[in-house]
Every structure is written in C-alpha cells, then in structure tokens.
TrEMBL record:
Stretches the record annotates as Disordered: 1-29
TM stretches of this protein: 172-194
Official protein name in the record: LPXTG-protein cell wall anchor protein
Source organism (scientific name): Enterococcus faecium (Streptococcus faecium)
SpaA-like prealbumin fold domain span: 43-156
UniProt entry keywords in alphabetical sequence: Cell wall, Membrane, Peptidoglycan-anchor, Secreted, Signal, Transmembrane, Transmembrane helix
A Pfam match: Gram_pos_anchor
Length: 203
C-alpha cells in the first residue's frame, strides 16, 4: 500500500484544513492492478459587488473567507510547492508559516470576484474594505454566507450590495450625525418661521 501525505487536489482527503491528511492507494505487482480512489468534489463560487441603489458595479472591495461568522478563523491558501492546477486551502487555526497566506478577494472594475477549487460546503464571506466612497457594512451586514455544491438548481453567483457614504445612516457612523443635525436645523427653521408669521398677524 502506498501512502501519500498532504492535501491532494482531486483525491479523497481529510476535512478542509487538515494539511497532514493521508490518501491511501491500493496497488498490486501482478497483471491485475487495483486502484482505490475516492474523489473529493470541489467547486467555484462567483460574486458581484454593486451599488445597492443604482446597481452600478463596484471595484476595489476586499473580502476574507471565514469558517463561520468569526473573523479569527480565516481561509488560508498554500503558496509554496504547488502542483499546476492544484488549489490547497486550510483554516488559519490549523496552519502557520510562510508557506501559507490569507485568502483575500478583490472585486474588479466590473464588480466581479471569485474563489476557485473550494471543497464543497458552506462558507462565510466578510467584507473588510469597502469601495472608495462607500460605507463598510457593519455587524450582520458585513457577512454573506454561501454554499459550494454541485446542485444545478442552486446559483453559484451572489450579489453583494454597498451603500454610498452619507446616503443613509449607518450604526455608529457619521451618517446618522448628519441626519440628526439636518433634522434639528429644519425643525428650528420651521419654529422661527411660524413664530415670525404669528407676530406679523398679531401686529
């Protein structure tokens, strides 16, 4: 029996994030050769970044991929000793060293970005940098769950929306302050106007 350690694209392997999984292959030295392989399914996922109001496509947004809505466990990609056409991923809680770097996706000028070669399963996309002139989503709005599978009835494309800065208030942001100040100014102006009109009528 031949044992090969490491994550091998296209072969059965341990859950994503186990870089020391073992792939077993059964071979005989006679004319009858038996090969036992379990094929692990992979998939790609595509995203589009756009303005929530105009649907204008937005470039320059940056994203991380998380195991869950926990920014401390991020998807990593091996950058050393790769075989052509092979994608090796693991979770940040399970690997370290200069051979690995965090996966970061950036939308292009048409708002498009994608991830390739992921093991089928559910992941979480986190926006970590908004396009220029747009507010970075906060709390639940910063996360988008997506599932990689081979079901033809489900979409492998998700649209991610952004609010322009100053259009609508965001929690804890300067937008809400601007709206409050504008409301106070309008209310104060209306009070002064009606008070002056009342004095003119009495005169």
């Amino acid at each position: 029996m031949q044992q090969t350690t490491g994550i091998i694209h296209g072969a059965d392997q341990a859950n994503l994030g186990n870089p020391t999984g073992v792939v077993n292959r059964e071979n005989t030295t006679t004319d009858n050769t038996i090969t036992v392989e379990n094929v692990q399914k992979y998939g790609d996922f595509h995203f589009i970044k756009q303005d929530v109001n105009t649907q204008e496509k937005l470039g320059g947004a940056e994203f991380s991929i998380l195991r869950a809505k926990d920014p401390t466990v991020k998807l990593m990609k091996k950058i050393a000793n790769l075989v052509s056409g092979e994608y090796l991923y693991a979770w940040s809680s399970e690997v370290s060293g200069s051979d690995w770097e965090e996966v970061k996706l950036i939308s292009d000028s048409e708002g498009k970005f994608s991830i390739e070669g992921l093991k089928q399963g559910t992941y979480c996309l986190q926006e970590i940098k908004a396009p220029k002139g747009y507010a970075l989503p906060k709390n639940e709005a910063a996360y988008t769950e997506f599932t990689v599978d081979d079901d033809p009835t489900t979409s492998d494309k998700t649209t991610i929306d952004n609010q322009p800065k100053g259009i609508l208030p965001s929690t804890g942001g300067t937008g809400i302050i601007a709206f409050i100040l504008a409301g106070i100014s309008l209310t104060g102006g209306a009070v002064i106007y009606f008070k002056k009109r009342h004095q003119e009528i009495e005169a």
